[in-house]
Write a structure and sequence with these properties.
The structure holds two protein chains of two kinds. Chain A has 14 helices and eight strands. About 8% of the residues of chain A have low confidence. By secondary structure, chain B is α/β, with parallel strands linked by helices. Chain B is built from 13 helices and 14 strands. In chain B, the strands form three sheets. In chain B, strands 3-2-4-5-7-6-12 form a seven-stranded mixed beta sheet, sandwiched between helices. In chain B, strands 9-11-10-13-14 form a five-stranded mixed beta sheet, with helices on both faces. In chain B, strands 1-8 form a two-stranded antiparallel sheet. In chain B, strand 2, helix 2 and strand 3 form a beta-alpha-beta unit. The longest helix of chain B is centred in the C-terminal third of the chain and has 16 residues. The model of chain B has no long low-confidence stretch (mean pLDDT 97). The chains are: A alpha/beta, B alpha/beta. The structure holds thiamine diphosphate and magnesium ion. Thiamine diphosphate sits at the interface of chains A and B.
Chain lengths: 350, 324
């Protein structure tokens, strides 16, 4: 793979990690409130997928969407200001962490109700298909979200009408505290897509290059007009479900085994991490063995000085984002009313 | 014997005692089992009663609420927990088209001992999709009982009554009340599930409210009393049916009525109260019925705006002072 793409992805992954860890800190300082769902551990998914997409493609995401927005190009200051609930936030302080929107960058929202990203995506894709455009919609959702009715309804319609949707399942194996084997009979999520004749594959979400390549070829097929594609990307969140959740329901060895394969470290390190013993592996399940074996075959392409430089840069970007957010004023009640009535034009209401 | 407990603990005890007493009681919902429930209401029950009676579900609200309907038709007593009222929107078909219609459409053949427990209301900056109240929609459904407990004692009584009832009952629990403390006397005999409570007797005005705003109303009343303004506070406890007689008796005494609710005012629970009590107390009222409600606005994420979008103790005091 090209060195430049690789470097750009690494930088975004580092930015993502630094941004989210800072958001966690700002939450503890009381600058961010409500539900705050963070992404550490899963960076390779948003970064790999969105680097392989075009600016003309649309992105629809969940409540765990800060990184998707950042990689899409929403300025970090705008994202942080939204987390702070300020007027200069990308949703004007009305949406907060779970509801980032940026029409200009075709970032079509963060949705807080599980299962909403599918119908929004198929709707956008329907419009694209009607207008015969070369664009696609990238629809993100979690492993827990595939048991919502809208999943099945939307996959059927997308397939039936050949809609240009790339379904991306971010499979981090948990639906808050419920492990995937306790919420789904079929735990290899990609297999569900075949019920709707949607081509699907499973991708190692610990390896950003794999994610990038899989997305690139899926998008190529979509642009050829063959209809929707589906990728199940296996990943892991290092933190709890949200800042309100300590995540204590997960076995320690599982968390550690995935941390050993941290996608950011995987990008950074030449060395092969210590292979866990058989007991640890069986406690984690066989998917993790795949992750590790893929990892062992991977080659290192990064220069250590560049990395240090990048780390400095992203820390600076995050610091500036926080300063921008802190300096931004709070929205007024008039701002709230205009947001509500934004589509009413000058109509005088009685 | 009276204990001081948190509201979630009262619900937890009610679940436990009903599950112990009747094998047909089971509960189901997202993270109710191993995790112990988002607000701890089902804590400890999974270990005690096992997975068939305390079932963790997939994110399939329409599916598992509908499952509760089916199980109730054949004599089970399901207690479905929907993680928050916002997600109950996905289960409205099961609640409105199924739970309340099947007993009627079948000409009265089927019992529907279904309980649906739902946290809701404006909590702390959870933004527009996670701060809703749905009483307006649910009140418009004939055949559905709606309990709105605001104290641990009521939570204990009403959940137990709901489980024992053969009608579908939805319990709206306010997210900010789970960790509020209050006395619980488990031996005390329960009033009827829909009986309103006069929380504070007074003569100048009747203030009717429910759920969290009923608590705020009592705090407002205490402050008003310091200024020599003596109001009566009624906590409805039930939104369907409504205990009209308690309301009418109070208005006949005070001749002034203020209704306070957290939900949007337009077409809300307060609209029903204002309409019916205007009809029934017209000759008793010395002033027009007033409502003090949440703004007709989706809840903003910004904390200052969120706080300004719903009644507070001081805004309730102002609303009272504008009437008397
Ligand atoms: C309809 C609905 N039900 C329940 C919830 C509460 N909830 C928020 S996130 C979540 C788990 C989602 O898991 P998954 O889809 O795997 O995404 P992840 O958080 O792991 O990224 C649940 C149950 C919700 N937001 N919407
Ligand atoms: Mg998940």
């Amino acid at each position: 793979m090209e060195r430049d793409i690789l470097k750009a992805m690494l930088k975004d992954m580092l930015l993502a990690r630094a941004f989210e860890e800072r958001a966690a800190y700002e939450y503890t300082q009381g600058n961010i409130a409500g539900f705050l769902h963070l992404y550490p551990g899963e960076e390779a998914v948003a970064v790999g997928v969105l680097h392989a997409s075009e600016p003309g493609d649309y992105v629809v995401s969940t409540y765990r969407e800060h990184v998707h927005a950042l990689v899409r190009g929403v300025p970090p200051g705008k994202v942080m200001a939204e987390l702070f609930g300020r007027k200069d936030g990308c949703s004007g302080g009305m949406g907060g962490s779970m509801h980032l929107f940026d029409q200009q960058r075709r970032f079509m929202g963060g949705y807080g109700i599980v299962g909403e990203t599918y119908p929004v995506s198929t709707g956008i894709a329907y419009a694209i298909a009607m207008r015969n455009l070369p664009e696609a919609v990238i629809c993100f959702f979690g492993d827990g979200a595939v048991n919502q009715g809208t999943f099945h309804e939307s996959l059927n319609m997308a397939a039936l009408w050949n809609l240009p949707v790339l379904f991306i399942c971010e499979n981090n194996r948990y639906q808050i505290g419920t492990e995937i084997h306790r919420h789904s009979k079929v735990t290899e999520v990609y297999k569900r897509a075949c019920g709707y004749k949607i081509p699907a594959e499973q991708v190692n979400g610990m390896d950003v290059m794999e994610v990038y390549k899989a997305t690139q070829s899926a998008l190529l097929r979509i642009r050829e007009g063959t209809g929707p594609q589906f990728l199940e990307i296996e990943t892991y969140r290092f933190r709890g479900h949200s800042m309100a959740d300590p995540g204590s329901y997960r076995p320690k060895v599982e968390v550690q085994a995935f941390k050993d394969e941290d996608p950011v470290t995987v990008m950074l390190q030449d060395s092969i991490p210590e292979y866990p013993d058989a007991e640890k592996i069986s406690a984690v399940g066989r998917d993790n063995i795949e992750h590790l074996s893929n990892h062992m075959h991977r080659e290192n392409l990064i220069n250590p000085e560049d990395i240090e430089q990048m780390k400095k840069q992203v820390n600076e970007i995050v610091e500036q984002a926080v300063q921008y957010a802190a300096a931004s004023p709070e929205p007024s009640m008039d701002d709230a009313w205009s947001a509500l009535n934004c589509n009413r034009g000058q109509e005088v209401l009685i | 014997m009276t204990d001081e407990v948190l509201l979630w603990q009262a619900l937890n005890k009610a679940m436990d005692i009903e599950m112990a007493a009747d094998n047909s009681v089971f509960t189901m919902g997202e993270d109710v089992g191993l995790y112990g429930g988002s607000y701890r209401v089902t804590e400890g029950l999974y270990a005690k009663y096992g997975e068939w009676r305390v079932r963790d579900t997939p994110i399939s609200e329409g599916g598992f609420t509908g499952l509760g309907v089916g199980a109730a038709m054949v004599g089970m007593r399901p207690v479905i927990e929907i993680m928050t009222i916002n997600f109950a929107l996905l289960a409205l078909d099961a609640i409105i088209n199924m739970a309340t219609k099947i007993p009627f459409m079948s000409g009265g053949q089927f019992p529907m001992p279904l309980v649906i427990r739902v946290p809701g209301g404006v909590a702390k900056q959870l933004a527009a999709q996670h701060s809703q109240r749905l009483e307006h929609t649910l009140m418009n459904v004939p055949g559905l009982r709606i309990a709105v407990p605001s104290t641990p004692q009521d939570a204990w009584w009403q959940l137990r009554q709901a489980i024992q009832s053969n009608e579908p009952v939805i319990i709206l629990e306010h997210e900010l009340l789970y960790f509020s403390k209050g006395p619980l006397d488990m031996a005390l005999e329960a009033p009827p599930m829909h009986r309103a409570a006069v929380r504070r007797a007074g003569s100048a005005l009747t203030l009717i409210s429910y759920s969290r705003t009923a608590i705020l109303a009592q705090q407002a009343a205490d402050k008003l009393a310091e200024d020599g303004i003596d109001i009566e506070v009624i906590d409805l406890r039930s939104l369907s049916p409504i205990d009209w007689q308690t309301c009418i008796d109070s208005v006949s005494k005070t001749h002034h009525l203020l209704i306070v609710e957290e939900d949007c005012g337009f077409s809300g629970a307060g609209a029903e109260l204002a309409a019916t009590l205007s009809e029934r107390c017209f000759y008793e009222l010395d002033a027009p019925v007033q409502r003090h409600t949440g703004l007709d606005l989706p809840t903003p994420y910004n904390g200052t705006l969120e706080a300004a979008s719903i009644p507070t103790v001081s805004s309730i005091i102002n609303a009272v002072k504008q009437i008397i």
